[in-house]
Amino acid sequence: MEYNEAKNKFISTWGSLGTLWGINKAMAQIQALLFISTKPLSTEEIMEELQISRGNTSMNVRQLMDWGIVTKELVPGERKEYFTTEKDVQELARVIAKERSRREIQPVIKTLKEVCSIKDDGTEKTKELIKQTKALHDLADTADTMLNKLVNQNQNWLTKSLLKLFS
Amino acid sequence: MEYNEAKNKFISTWGSLGTLWGINKAMAQIQALLFISTKPLSTEEIMEELQISRGNTSMNVRQLMDWGIVTKELVPGERKEYFTTEKDVQELARVIAKERSRREIQPVIKTLKEVCSIKDDGTEKTKELIKQTKALHDLADTADTMLNKLVNQNQNWLTKSLLKLFS
DNA sequence: ATAAACTTTCAAAAATTATTGAAAGTTTAA
DNA sequence: TTAAACTTTCAATAATTTTTGAAAGTTTAT
């Protein structure tokens, strides 16, 4: 496997993984492309490499900037905008976890809280609803908190062998 | 908020959360419905409650059985099949984490491994590709392993206050 | 064997989501 | 101010995913 094949494989795999962290294919592919690029890329270059339209590129780059993982880079003497992505995987993971939590997990936790707080009218079905949604709420809340704490450690939890705790 | 409103809110929230664990809306809603039901439900009952077609119900129930979180329940003297879901949230989390890892994360880790193992031809772009995909591989691999170990603890990690480790 | 009761399949339709491209908008240089 | 260089917007279109429903398949009772 030489460079181009490997590059394409990486971009397409990362693109299809987009769903896993809740973004679309083009957005994930743009991020992937920037992630392995040795220099900032212009809109033109992104369009060319990924064979996508200007509008698509513009919207998805903007979204990546909203997520906080892509930034504009101004090249002196150039009118065009150039883009780079966060290159540190730890920081990337931290930002993604934080955003997903804020956008998707927190609202669900909030709803679960509301549902499991309804008045117990004594019927079996109400008791079951309360019991089960309470269990889910607690699980989701704990998992979310843990994920955030884990990912927010600024020490490198990879090399600190935190794994040992669970072995 | 009384029972029916709460029930609908739960089912629809859980349904839209489906994407987060990689399944479609109907599948998530069926699971949600069974999760708060006090008794096993037939295909008819599921169709009726969620207002979905027979074919849709059949296919999604089958998928939930493939995932291992819904099981057939045979009621003596009845010809119909009845369904129940795993009621324990810990076990549910364990199964979901395991399936997601197997279906989606492992294949990506495998690809990352391949890509970061290409021959270093000495060019800057190849070095960058190798370096960045290696970092992602290590992160993904560690995160996946941790998640599985966490979720496989059969002790109750909620009540064991594992949280304290990260506070 | 037959028929009733039920489940599964799958091609077609509907719904949803992503993408395009051209027009409108913005910024900069002269 | 004008015009060139660039970016953004968004209605239309395309692609993808989900859902339907009726036909085919299966099982069970008689």
From TrEMBL, chains A, B:
Pfam families: MarR_2 (PF12802). InterPro entries: ArsR-like_HTH (IPR011991), HTH-GbsR_regulator (IPR052362), HTH_ArsR_DNA-bd_dom (IPR001845), HTH_MarR-typ (IPR000835), MJ1563 (IPR026282), WH-like_DNA-bd_sf (IPR036388), WH_DNA-bd_sf (IPR036390). CDD domains: HTH_ARSR. Keywords: DNA-binding, Transcription, Transcription regulation. Residues 22-98 form the HTH arsR-type domain. One of its GO terms (molecular function) is DNA binding. Belongs to the GbsR family. This is HTH-type transcriptional regulator.
